[in-house]
């Protein structure tokens, strides 16, 4: 059965290395017969959460920007994949801000069950994405029906295009193909 998949590329750089991972994940998920939408945050207007918690009553954010629309899309999909560059051994600020702005989902009847993480960094150590993945797992803990279903890391990639020929691209493609 076809799944609704939302891929959120959080890199501030158009065509960045983590975005390349997102593209491969999209290709794999589509090849598996899924309905896939990809959103890039680099050209979106996303303000910071105000911590007012009005969204817990209304199920919508009081800030009417792109994050409100993205959170509503997140609510209605089966699968979410986040792609982020690793900055200072953490997810990029754009991703963290988007996770914060998804607060209306906490009290909503969300559909997503599987969440994936795609990361890229200049550092090569296998433990490089550890804190970013842990941060996403913290967000997922707030959604008891969801789980971290997988992650891919591409190390040693800094400048745009460095990821070309990196085996993580194939891993992201294959991970996308597993969605059924």
UniProtKB/TrEMBL annotation:
Molecular function per GO: oxidoreductase activity
Q: Name the source organism.
A: Emergencia timonensis
Q: Which domain of life is it from?
A: Bacteria
Ordered alphabetically, the record's keywords are: Flavoprotein, FMN
Q: Which segments constitute the NADPH-dependent FMN reductase-like domain?
A: 4-126
Query: Pfam families, from UniProt?
Result: FMN_red
**Coiled coil location:** none
Does the UniProt entry include the keyword Kinase? no
Mind telling me what this protein is named? Answer: Flavodoxin family protein
């Amino acid at each position: 059965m076809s799944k609704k998949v939302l891929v959120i590329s959080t890199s501030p750089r158009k065509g960045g290395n983590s975005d390349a991972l997102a593209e491969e994940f999209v290709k794999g998920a589509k090849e598996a017969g899924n309905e896939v939408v990809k959103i890039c945050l680099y050209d979106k207007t996303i303000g910071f959460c105000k911590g007012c918690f009005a969204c817990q009553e209304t199920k919508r954010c009081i800030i009417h920007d792109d994050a409100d629309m993205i959170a509503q899309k997140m609510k209605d999909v089966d699968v979410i994949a986040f792609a982020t560059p690793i900055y200072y051994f953490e997810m990029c600020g754009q991703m963290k801000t988007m996770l914060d702005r998804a607060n209306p989902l906490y009290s909503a009847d969300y559909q997503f069950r599987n969440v994936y993480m795609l990361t890229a960094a200049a550092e090569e150590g296998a433990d490089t994405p550890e804190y970013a993945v842990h941060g996403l797992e913290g967000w997922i803990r707030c959604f008891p029906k969801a789980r971290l279903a997988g992650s891919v890391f591409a190390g040693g990639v800094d400048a745009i295009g460095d990821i070309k020929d990196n085996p993580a691209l194939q891993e992201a493609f294959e991970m996308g193909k597993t969605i059924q």
